[in-house]
UniProtKB/TrEMBL annotation:
Family note: Belongs to the ELO family.
Protein name: Elongation of very long chain fatty acids protein
GO cellular component terms listed in the entry, alphabetical order: endoplasmic reticulum membrane
Cellular compartment(s): Membrane
EC number: 2.3.1.199
Main location: membrane
Membrane topology: Multi-pass membrane protein
Provenance organism: Fundulus heteroclitus
Any Pfam family matching the protein: ELO
The keyword Transmembrane helix is assigned to this record: yes
Presence of the UniProt keyword S-adenosyl-L-methionine in the record: no
């Protein structure tokens, strides 16, 4: 047993990545069905709540956010450790082109869990609808597209995925922790919300950068990808950046005197 296997948990060692890949390749297209049902929930849910009083749901929201925060923190630690090891020992190019994380002893579980988790994360929207907060386009557009792209990327196991996954885990670790404390009633300075949104924009810039390098190295034997993934990923990250930048400006500068609650701060 090598060092990485000794440092892994039993559920990580026992995870069958070959069966996970087989399932995703057979079922990834069902993500379109899930997104269709989700979109229907967005609009019918808002219509259902239109004449009804908003629900408090503070405790369920706190538990929900706390659970996703713990999951994201663990994922960020596991995948981040792997990424740091690759960067230090093999360099940036290998960190971009590396696809071994889909099968690596420790993080093969987290690679699959990351993709699958984009389904349950749709539940964020339920709280917004039932609490009658403002549901902005960025929120539900992001949930739909990230689910589709995550499943599409995992089933092809292309280069760049390690960066996408690690960055998202890290941002979500911060974001859901913030939401959990907010739901618990903590008064958190406004600048922390600004930092989270700024971090999300940096994530989008890095996503575009990584895809640019994947395109540059796509003909290398050890940097497998395809143009469909690069094109759709670039469109996704570029649209996210524009929408997050617009949200950042409108929330913190144009309408700076308004509270986060009135703007519907939960963009992701």
């Amino acid at each position: 047993m090598n060092e990485s296997e000794r440092s892994s948990f039993d559920f990580e060692r026992r995870f069958d990545d070959s069966k996970a890949l087989e399932w995703m390749q057979e079922n990834w297209s069902k993500s379109f069905i899930f997104c269709g049902l989700y979109a229907a929930l967005v609009f019918t849910g808002q219509y259902f709540m239109k004449e009804r009083p908003k629900m408090n749901l503070r405790l369920p929201l706190m538990l929900w956010s706390f659970s996703l925060a713990i999951f994201s923190i663990m994922g960020a630690f596991r995948t981040g450790t792997h990424m740091l090891h690759v960067l230090v020992n093999s360099g940036f190019k290998e960190s971009v082109c590396d696809t071994s994380f889909y099968r690596a002893p420790i993080i093969k579980f987290w690679a699959y869990a990351f993709a699958v988790s984009k389904g349950p994360e749709l539940g964020d929207t339920v709280f917004i609808i039932l609490r009658k907060q403002r549901l902005i386009f960025l929120h539900w557009y992001h949930h739909i597209t990230v689910l589709l792209y995550s499943w599409f990327t995992y089933k092809d196991q292309v280069a760049g995925g390690s960066w996408f996954m690690t960055m998202n885990f890290m941002v979500h670790a911060i974001m859901y922790t913030y939401y959990a404390f907010r739901a618990a009633g903590w008064k958190i300075p406004r600048r922390f919300a600004m930092i989270i949104t700024a971090t999300q924009m940096i994530q989008m810039v890095m996503g575009l950068t990584v895809l640019g390098f994947v395109y540059r190295w796509i003909h290398d034997v050890n940097c497998p990808s395809n143009m469909d993934n690069i094109v759709w990923g670039s469109i996704m990250y570029l649209s996210y950046f524009v929408l997050f930048a617009s949200f950042f400006y409108n929330t913190y500068f144009k309408d700076g005197s308004k509270s986060m609650e009135s703007k519907g701060s939960k963009a992701e």
